[in-house]
């Protein structure tokens, strides 16, 4: 077993022994590495002041650069990556990177606290995309908050940075970086101890099964966008952590015989393309799932396994009829995703089991699908209510209907009474009205800081009405896309 964390800090190889498994990358940068450019604003993935860029080698042996929140990223997960911080951007002869120069030229900074984070999000964009649209820039910057400058100059900087004459040193060295990271690749489990605490990062399912058999009480860690906050906000001590992000079989997206199969450790950023292509509404919802920074870390399996009643992907996957594969000591078992959620915080996961993958059937040509996220803010907000509907209408009647809801019960749920009220009925105004009345009574939602019980009941039934209108009157404009609102 490998017993040291190895990564590149810029192009400098780093090897760390005796790493605290839940020390964050931000803590290490500021306290141990003397790099204080990355700031701590919230320590919960919300503000982007801590943004750093991670470089990884993809399946085609090319570098992929992603901006992430260092404040909730645990140090050992850097193993095999390149870490780039704001200190790497200025050249040795003092030239600012275009992401920095454009911020200066557009007056994109005042107090400067948020600026390194914005610059790193812009830097990742510069490395990965050429002259993105204004909407894309807004999406990429949605996880970086600024309390004083205002966003207009910063968004202008994002466009201007492509106009400078610049040969990017990071891109110029990319093939050297690939070679270096490939030479660091492990074929065995990374096993760390720190006092009485342990961290394991297996590279395959066999290694994962062994670690889980040895430590059945261990905390599974994927992107850490939930688990990270248990440490930084709830100050929990995690005795044993098993990281699933390096397990090869949990990666990969396959499109086969009418379904899409997504490995549990695939990030939302990697899944969004294929899901948006098959289900444009799901793509739109994922665009509003947290922020680009979070989606670059958060995984499909982590969202499903966490089982939050206000998580975004589950209602959608339930309505789509997705099936979940769990793997454990007795092999693999499959279930409709809704059966996984037993009660608040309680899922049908047996000791030693983990979520392996999700299988999502694609839509038949005569099926219609819509999903809706209702939250107080457009970007970077948790849903008050999430609703999804899939329908097949034959000869004017509802031949098949599936629904999925979040934010209305202790778990993500189907509205089975409403589905029964719709099944076999003519898909018309009277049926929609009758089903709305059933739906308004089907759940007993809570009142909390996101919405009142009455609001949740009302909006849930109104979303069914919206779905009815959108499937029967395609000319009815019930939604305005973001890019249509741009000046
Ligand atoms: C700022 C911010 C905004 C957010 N916004 C949203 C939002 O808009 N919508 C939303 O739904 N969520 C949101 N979240 C929550 C979070 O990002 C998601 O739940 C995310 O999908 C979790 O995935 P992860 O890979 O980070 O999981 P982790 O944090 O690593 O793990 C989450 C849970 O799943 C378990 N787990 C992970 N992988 C597996 C596996 N393969 N098998 C079994 N168990 C496993 C872990 O043990 C843990 O219990 C937000 C979080 C933050 C910090
Ligand atoms: S410090 Fe706010 S997102 Fe990391
Ligand atoms: S410049 Fe002050 S927070 Fe952005």
Textual characterization of the structure:
The C terminus is likely disordered. The strands form 5 sheets. This protein has a 5-stranded mixed sheet with strand order 2-1-5-3-4. 32% of the residues lie in helices and 22% in strands. It has 17 helices and 19 strands. It is α+β, with helices and mostly antiparallel strands. It folds into 3 domains: 184 residues, Beta-grasp domain (Ubiquitin-like (UB roll), Roll), CATH 3.10.20; 112 residues, Uridine Diphospho-n-acetylenolpyruvylglucosamine Reductase, domain 3, CATH 3.30.465; 106 residues, Enolase-like, domain 1 (2-Layer Sandwich), CATH 3.30.390.50. The structure holds flavin-adenine dinucleotide and FE2/S2 (inorganic) cluster (FES) (2 copies). The site of one FE2/S2 (inorganic) cluster (FES) has 11 residues, from loops.
What is the compact description of this entry?
By secondary structure, this protein is α+β, with helices and mostly antiparallel strands. It has 17 helices and 19 strands. The model is unreliable at 482-487 (pLDDT under 50).
């Amino acid at each position: 077993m490998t017993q040291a964390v190895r990564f590149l800090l810029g192009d400098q190889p780093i090897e760390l022994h005796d790493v605290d498994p839940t020390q964050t990358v931000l803590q290490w940068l500021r306290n141990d590495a003397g790099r204080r450019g990355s700031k701590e604003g919230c320590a919960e993935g919300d503000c982007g002041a801590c943004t750093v860029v991670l470089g990884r080698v993809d399946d085609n042996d090319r570098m992929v650069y992603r901006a992430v929140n260092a404040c909730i990223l645990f140090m050992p997960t850097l193993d095999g990556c390149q870490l780039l911080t704001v200190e790497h951007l200025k050249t040795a002869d003092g030239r600012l990177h275009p992401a920095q120069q454009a911020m200066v030229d557009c007056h994109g900074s005042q107090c400067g606290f948020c600026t390194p984070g914005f610059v790193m999000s812009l830097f990742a964009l510069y490395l990965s995309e050429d002259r993105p649209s204004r909407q894309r820039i807004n999406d990429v910057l949605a996880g970086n908050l600024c309390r004083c400058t205002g966003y207009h100059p910063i968004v202008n900087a994002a466009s201007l940075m492509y106009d400078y004459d610049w040969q990017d040193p990071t891109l110029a060295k990319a093939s050297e970086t690939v070679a270096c990271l490939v030479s660091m690749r492990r074929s065995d489990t990374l096993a760390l101890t720190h006092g009485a605490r342990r961290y394991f990062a297996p590279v395959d399912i066999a290694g994962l099964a062994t670690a889980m058999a040895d430590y059945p009480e261990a905390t599974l860690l994927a992107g850490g966008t939930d688990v990270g906050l248990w440490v930084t906000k709830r100050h929990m001590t995690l005795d044993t952590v098993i990281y699933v992000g390096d397990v090869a079989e949990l990666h990969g997206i396959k499109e086969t015989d009418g379904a899409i199969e997504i490995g549990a450790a695939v990030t939302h950023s990697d899944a969004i393309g294929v899901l948006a292509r098959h289900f444009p509404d799901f793509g739109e919802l994922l665009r509003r799932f947290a922020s680009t920074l979070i989606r670059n870390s958060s995984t499909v399996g982590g969202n499903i396994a966490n089982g939050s009643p206000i998580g975004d992907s589950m209602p959608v996957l339930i309505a789509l009829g997705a099936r979940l594969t769990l793997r454990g000591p007795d092999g693999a078992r499959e279930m409709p995703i809704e059966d996984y959620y037993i009660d608040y915080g309680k899922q049908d996961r047996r000791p030693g089991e983990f979520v392996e993958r999700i299988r999502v059937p694609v839509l038949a040509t005569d099926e219609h699908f819509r999903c809706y996220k209702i939250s107080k803010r457009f970007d970077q907000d948790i849903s008050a209510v999430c609703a999804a509907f899939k329908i097949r209408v034959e000869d004017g009647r509802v031949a098949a209907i599936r629904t999925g809801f979040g934010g209305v019960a202790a778990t993500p749920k189907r509205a089975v009474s409403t589905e029964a009220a719709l099944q076999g009925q003519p898909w018309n105004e009277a049926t929609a009205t009758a089903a709305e009345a059933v739906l308004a009574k089907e759940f007993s939602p809570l009142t909390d800081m996101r919405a009142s019980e009455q609001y949740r009941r009302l909006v849930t039934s109104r979303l069914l009405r919206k779905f009815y209108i959108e499937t029967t009157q395609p000319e009815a404009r019930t939604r305005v896309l973001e890019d249509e609102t741009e000046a």
